[in-house]
Each structure stands twice: as C-alpha cells, then as structure tokens.
Amino acid sequence: MADTKREIERKYEGPPTGGDPALPDLTRVPGVSGVIDKGVADLDATYYDTADQRLAAASLTLRRRTGGDDAGWHLKLPVSEGVRDEIRAPLSDTVPASLSALVRSRVREAELVPVVRLLSARDVRHLVDASGALLAEVSVDRVRAERLSGGTGAAEWTEIEVELADDGDPAFLDKVEKKLRKAGLARSSSKSKLARALSDTDTTHSTDTTKTTKTTKTTKKRDEPTDRAPRTAGDHVLAYLRTQLDAIIELDPAVRRDLHDSVHSMRVATRRMRSAFRSYGKILDRAVTDPIGEELKWLAGELGVGRDQEVLTERLTTALDGLPGALLTGPVRDRLRTWSQARGDGSRRHLIAVLDGGRYLDLLAALDGVVTDPPLLKAAAGDPSKVITKAVRKDFAKVSALVDQALGPAPGADRDLAMHEARKKAKRTRYAAEAAVPALGGPAAGLVKSMKSLQSLLGDHQDSVMAREALRDLAAQAHAAGESAFTYGVLYGREERRAAAVEAAFPGEWEAVGGGSGI
Q1: Which of 130, 153, 289, 404 is the least buried, fewest Cβ under 10 Å from its Cβ?
Q2: CA-to-CA distance for 424 and 417, rounded, in angstroms?
Q3: What is the dihedral of CA 448, 451, 456, 457, to 10 degrees?
Q4: Distance (Å, rounded) from C-alpha 44 to C-alpha 83?
C-alpha cells in the first residue's frame, strides 16, 4: 500500500576534491535552538528507468532502497523547484503495481530496468527549536554511484541535503542557506542524485570511469524548445499541441492519485487538442487527425463521467445550503447524497481501468506521432498572421451563426439546445485563439477573453438545464418513497429563474464581443 510525503529540500555541493564538507555552526541559524546528531545511516538504493531513460528525462525517480528509517520503494514526482511528492510502497522484489501505474504514461509498454545503484553513508543532524520540535533535517551524504545499464562507469561525491520538516515554513530553508553560503557551500547544479549519477557514470561521453567532479549531461525531452522559435503557421500549431500532450502525460499520475482538479485539467487538455485538430485543418491533414480526434473525444467522455456528476452534486448542495430551514422538508440531504453516490459509484474504478487499457496507450502513441512526425499540409509553411488568422476568423463566424440561432427561439428546449451548441463553439473558438496568441498577440488574447466570458455565461445556463433534470429525477424518487418533493420544486424554480437571468443577459454579452473577432 502506497503513501505520500511532500518533500521540500535543497541540495548543496560538497568540496570539489571529494573531501567531507565542514558544516558551519547551525545553532546560529535564526530559530534553531539545538542540533541533534542522529548518527550515520548506510543506504543502498537501486534506481529504475527505461533503457532510454524516459523517467529521468521527466525528472522522475523510481528507486528501491534499504537502510535508514524509510526502506522501501520510492517514486518522486516533481511539483515545483525544490518540491517533490515522494510516494512510498513497502519493500518487494519487483516494482510495485501502485508505482508502475503512476509512470505508465511515460513508460508505456517499455520495461523498467535497474540503471544505477547508489551507496550512501548519510550523516544526519536534526535542527530543532526551543520546544524540541523538528525544523529541518541536514544530512551529509558520501555517495558512490555504480552504473548498472547503459554504461559501466562509477562516480563518487559528497553533497549536503537540507529537508524541511513536515508542515514547516519554506522560508526557514532560506535562513539555513544563508548560513551555508557564508561557509562557502553552493547549491547543487544537479536536480537529484540520480541526475548526477547518470551524468557522471556516462561512459559514452568519457573514458574516465571514476569521477569526483560534476559533469553535465541533459536528456532531451520532447517538450524542450527546438533550436529556433516558431516561424510558420505549422510551428505555432505544433507548439500548442505539444503543450497539451505534455499536460495529458503529466496529469496522468495526478488523476490516478485523485488530486484536486486533475481530472478536469486533463479533460481540458484533450479537448484543446481535438479543437486544434479541427480548427487548423488547413495546417494538419484531417485524414490523419480526425480519427485521433475521435479517440480524444472518447477519452474526454471517460474523464467526464465522474467529473460531471461531481460538479452537479456540488451545485445542488450549494443550492440546498442557501435555502432557509423552513423550505427544507423531508430527508433532502440524505437523498441527494444517496443519489449522487449511486450515479457516481464505480466511476473512479472505471476511469483507472481506462488509463490502464491499451486503447489509451494507443492514443498516446498516436499523439506522439502527430507531434514528432506531423501530417503537415501546404498551408503549414505559410505566414502565421495570414493562415492562423483565417482559421480563427472561420471559427468565430460559426460562433456568430450559432448565437443568432440561439437568440431566436422562445425560452424552452429549443433555446436550451441552441445555447448549448453556441457554448461548445465558443469554447472551440477560445482554444483556437489560445493557440494563436503567440503568433497574433493582443487581438487573439482579446478574443480568448471574450470567448471565455461567453462560454462561462452559457455554461451556467447549461448547468441549470442539467440541474433541473436532476431535480426532476430526485423529486420522482422522493415521491415514490413517500417523501415530500416540495424542496426539489423550490430548487427547480430557483434554477428556472437563474436560467432566465442568463438568457436575459445573453444578448448584451454577445453585443459586448463587438460583433467581430477583432482579428
């Protein structure tokens, strides 16, 4: 069973000669009342990766470590500079399934193999405050790295780690760093021990098998900038697609961990890619991208199963919270809870099964193919200010036509449907304009803002439509169970008024867009 620890730490270089660093008196760090010597721990860690080092390229580390007080399997996922989530699992002979699943979007069908072994003698000190509470752990690590695959080199070095205590103030690390810098210690140029080990044991770039000084080697990532800035229309569209594909891959483990907003964010990335395929069909061959777009639509639908229910439940719960007590009759909250659980039951298990399935991996492979070997058409080589502008204007014209259709019908099912269609097209135009911002600048950014505002207004209307359908369902269930349906009727009436307010604001919102894209 895996558990997670947020790790906030900084690393510092030891002496270039390989000797032990002399730590300054850390009791002089503001807030530190004592330094407790915790002794030396011998750590033995084997790091796993694919043969082409896909995890290292993404700054992920997966290791099996013995020794110390946290022996087991550790997967470290980057959060921000100096911050990682360490996900732990008990010791076993093979990579735990709970961890291999979290790297599946990177690894795909490739095998995880031992790449580096690190033997460390860790001399640990605890910095504590006047009450004896832990502020940070400082360790001096004497490391020996041995290459297990992709080379036969070895390397040795010494480094200092300062790890903040759980729930500590990150500003404390600045105080410790100030003291270390005065003692002549500098931040490490390597992101992790693994990164340094891979660099220093890379015998394909050096014949020296034992190094004590830092060398630099970078593994090129797909999302790193190319050797030139985007120039053509195709360059700009592909840059946008790469960003969305990177988001999908990076969000995969967050979705599996059920982190806040991860499902929604991944769903948005899939929709952005699909919209770009359709909006920029003169740049990328739709004979190639349309089938992939259908698979993106499938994935967005799978991601939306639990998310839509979650949003709807939150809307209804908030509405209930806003009602006076006199308008609450019967076990309304219990019924809402039961109804929501019944509709959402199994959705998460289903989503994880989707992410573990071959269809999802095939889609990732197809998307890789689009960005690495794009099916570019003649227009891709064209001037972005012309080609991209034409595509965005075409999308905006479609929004305009659908808005006209939505403004025509009287309130009712036909208008609801027309407003929903206008919302979907506004969203697509917004995404097309997002891709155009680097090429077109302010006018495209202005269109993004106006389409987002229109989409938000129409989205509120569609949420009201869905809420009213749910309230009818809840009222019918309550009635069948002999409960009062009064409260559901009250909420239904409020949703009707909310939708009417949106419909009244709709013409003015559209007029504010200016009747033209500005591009």
Answers
A1: 130
A2: 11
A3: 150
A4: 23
